[in-house]
Structure prediction request, 114 residues.
Amino acid sequence: MKIQEAVKKSNKIRRLEWDEGEYIDLKSDNTLLASEILEEDWEPVVETLTFERIKKECAAGKSLLVDEHGDTRLYLGFTRKGDLVTDFCDGTCGIHWSRPQIKNWKISEEKWRG
Prediction:
């Protein structure tokens, strides 16, 4: 992700740890000089995917989730016991997930057009 995109999408940017272990937080409305930032020296703070975030931001049958291997899965909803339900990575059947299983997933900006 480009640093300008990270600043726009997050209200904080975490500086990669240097020898001194220093970190710096930046507000998204701050302006930075390009000479002060080297892309390899910075990393955006990434919000962990949660069930609450999925419920808030996703539409069942339309939103795609991306697992830790880069496979997309169609978000279908939640079971009565509270597990996440998606289609299988090849789309042949459904599968359910517990909270710890999705910690490295993200919400795709692409929507399913089926």
